[in-house]
Design goal:
194 residues; mainly alpha; disordered C terminus; 72% helix; single chain
């Protein structure tokens, strides 16, 4: 019972941290503000997450769990037929996409606590995409690229569309543009796919 309550409290803290980071950015978010939002003292929060960096990494890992239905970022979690629904799902939760994108942008600076997380995450995601592409197309995609060549492009399109959509959601149809890109990967060069 105590363990279940502790896990519930931990999940509550992660949701609050995500909200605070979305509102203020990582650098502007404080442990005290997260603690206050969940009705804890800062010391009480530190019982669950010993540092702000540990909380940040837990938030990022939790987001990946949400995105993959609990499968995490294992290479087996990625399939091309699941990417389109993931992009559509992200279009329904701009706050989470905004937080992820802001943290990703911040993490490229030296010494940022999430830099290693994102570096490892992208290596894992590229590997998963490579395997998903290989499972669908074999050693060559219809356009001639290998899965190794196409995987970083697929990841770049997904993340690049998120940034464009966040900046101008009225002009950028993120799910539609991603469907069009999947059509290009599949060799449907005669126009957009529906």
């Amino acid at each position: 019972m105590a363990r279940a309550r502790s896990e519930e409290r931990r999940a509550e803290i992660l949701r609050a941290a995500l909200e605070v980071i979305a509102e203020r950015g990582y650098r502007g978010a404080s442990l005290a503000s997260v603690a206050e939002r969940v009705g804890l003292t800062q010391q009480g929060l530190l019982h669950h997450f010993p540092t702000k960096e540990a909380l940040l990494i837990a938030v990022l890992e939790e987001r990946d769990q949400w995105d993959t239905g609990g499968a995490g970022l294992s290479r087996d979690a990625w399939r091309l037929d699941l990417l389109e629904p993931l992009v559509e799902y992200n279009a329904m939760r701009p706050g989470i996409v905004q937080t992820f994108s802001a943290l990703l942008g911040e993490s490229v600076s030296d010494g940022h606590p999430a830099k290693d997380f994102f570096t490892e995450r992208y290596a894992t995601v590229r590997g998963g995409m490579r395997e998903a592409l290989r499972a669908e197309f074999g050693d060559r995609l219809p356009g001639g690229l290998t899965p190794e060549q196409a995987a970083p492009l697929l990841v770049a399109v997904m993340d690049g569309l998120q940034y464009q959509w966040l900046l101008d959601p009225e002009s950028v149809d993120m799910p539609g543009a991603f469907r069009d890109f999947l059509g290009l990967l599949r060799g449907a060069g005669d126009g957009p796919q529906s």
